[in-house]
Inverse folding.
């Protein structure tokens, strides 16, 4: 095919993709430099960097940044470790393995809002939740998880839903592992941990890097679980940057400040992605 013709055929999709990205970003940057209150749109006007200053001087800003990093890092760590452990366990043949695989993958297909409602009402409710029943069975005082440990509760909810994703990627990758190497290592006297460190873990290096990258992208914007369960409280203990932007936009009716927060969130995401790619990007190379 003529290269010029190929470029012309690709041009419409490239232009649409660029507009899809550039137009929202440009509007966000524009609104971040203006005073735009939904209740008083007639008072709109250019104010420069004032929205950014107002947003990052908010007392809740740095706690929200810390909560975001703790939430993302904790969920990634838990899901990778549990997903890897489950994948190795299920990789061995046993009766009913197909059914177990389906059960382990199922939580990933639950919507985040439904996931939050399940944990809020069925698991963590301090009166009739399953955890409360277990606590009372052993004579202990039930824990009000969402009030006493809000950030930990969000980490548990998100980890429960995303562990199947890591499990699915690792389980699929283990199917392509060279079994002859494992058999040779077994004949040479290598135990489970020796084979895991020298054979399985290097084989899963690229899948682990992919899982970390994909989860980081999604977890930086966790919102539904916080909105449905803790509402960012108490005392903004579970407020992340995404929820803080929501509070400024829809609860504070301030589009300008919320847009400034969105730009700061983009900058934070790119900083995290830069260091993450440098740390694990070598595993993504062919």
């Amino acid at each position: 095919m003529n290269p010029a013709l190929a470029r012309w055929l690709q041009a419409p999709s490239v232009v649409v993709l660029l507009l899809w990205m550039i137009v929202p970003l440009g509007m966000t940057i524009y609104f971040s430099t203006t005073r735009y209150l939904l209740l008083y749109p007639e008072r709109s006007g250019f104010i420069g960097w004032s929205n950014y200053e107002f947003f990052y001087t908010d007392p809740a800003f740095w706690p929200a940044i810390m909560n975001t990093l703790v939430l993302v890092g904790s969920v990634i760590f838990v899901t990778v470790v549990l997903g890897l452990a489950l994948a190795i366990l299920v990789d061995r043949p046993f009766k009913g393995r197909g059914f177990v695989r389906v059960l382990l993958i199922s939580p990933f297909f639950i919507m985040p809002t439904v996931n939050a409602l399940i944990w809020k009402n069925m698991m963590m409710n301090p009166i009739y939740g399953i955890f409360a029943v277990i606590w009372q069975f052993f004579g202990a005082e039930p824990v009000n998880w969402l009030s006493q440990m809000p950030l930990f509760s969000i980490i548990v909810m998100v980890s429960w839903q995303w562990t199947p994703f890591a499990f699915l990627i690792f389980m699929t990758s283990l199917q392509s592992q060279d079994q002859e190497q494992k058999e040779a290592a077994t004949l040479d006297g290598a135990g489970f941990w020796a084979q895991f460190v020298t054979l399985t873990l290097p084989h899963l290096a690229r899948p682990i890097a992919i899982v970390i990258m994909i989860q980081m992208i999604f977890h930086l914007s966790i919102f539904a679980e916080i909105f449905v369960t803790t509402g960012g409280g108490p005392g903004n203990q579970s407020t992340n940057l995404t929820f803080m932007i929501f509070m400024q936009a829809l609860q504070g009716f301030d589009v300008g400040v919320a847009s400034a927060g969105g730009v700061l969130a983009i900058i934070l995401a790119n900083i995290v992605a830069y260091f993450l790619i440098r740390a694990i990007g070598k595993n993504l190379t062919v």
Remarks:
- The longest strand covers residues 40-46.
